[in-house]
Each structure stands twice: as structure tokens, then as C-alpha cells.
Prior knowledge:
Blueprint: H1 6-29, E1 39-41, H2 44-49, E2 72-74, H3 92-124
Helix pairs in contact: 1-3
Amino acid sequence: MxxxxxxxxASRQAQWLSARQxxxxxxxxxxxTPHYKARDVQPFESVLQNTGVQMAATHRAHxxxxxxxxxxTDVSALDDVAVQxxxxxxxxxxxxxxxxxxxxxxxxxxxxxxSFHRMILMTVRK
Length: 126
């Protein structure tokens, strides 16, 4: 019997959401700090690409990629972020929208895990 990967995937997404919430909270806390550059984590899709069975490199010309689940990067000025006179690039409106999206994603994650867990329990009960 194959192991159920849904719980592992949900756990990785919850860790990623936690890391993103920490970064966004840091951005909000430093909204008035001069020369502070807003930061964000890489999208969860990059984690999905590195989850599961990896292709084996059977030839020396084959490439294998590995990346951290929550790599933090600076938000570039090209992301339509207005730089304030103090040099700060934090836009509070965008950061608050990110916190709403993080909350929604976490609730969806928890709901799916709860439903899947309930389904498994129904198959075990007699």
C-alpha cells in the first residue's frame, strides 16, 4: 500500500504559510523603518515542483534542481511598489492583502486535512 502524500503536502504548505506570515509580519512591523526593503517568499508552486518523486539523472547532461521550501527574497521595485522618501518599499495595503490570502489558504488547508482525515476514519470504522 502506498503512503498517503496528502498529509505531507498539507504539512509543507502549512510550514510555507507560516514562513510567509512571519515575513509579511516583519514587513508590516518595519513599515516606517528608513531604507527597509519589503520581502516575500517564493510561491508555493516552487515547493510543489520539488515535492514527490524526483527524476533520476541517468546521464551527465541531465539537470536536477533543488530549492528550499520557503526562500525569502526582496521584493523588487518593478513590482509596482512605490518607494517612499525614506527609501522604504513596504506598501501596507499589499501586506494586509497578503495576510488575508495567507489566512484563507491556511483555512482551506486545514479544512481539506480535516475532511480527508474524516474520510479515512469512515473507512476504518465498522
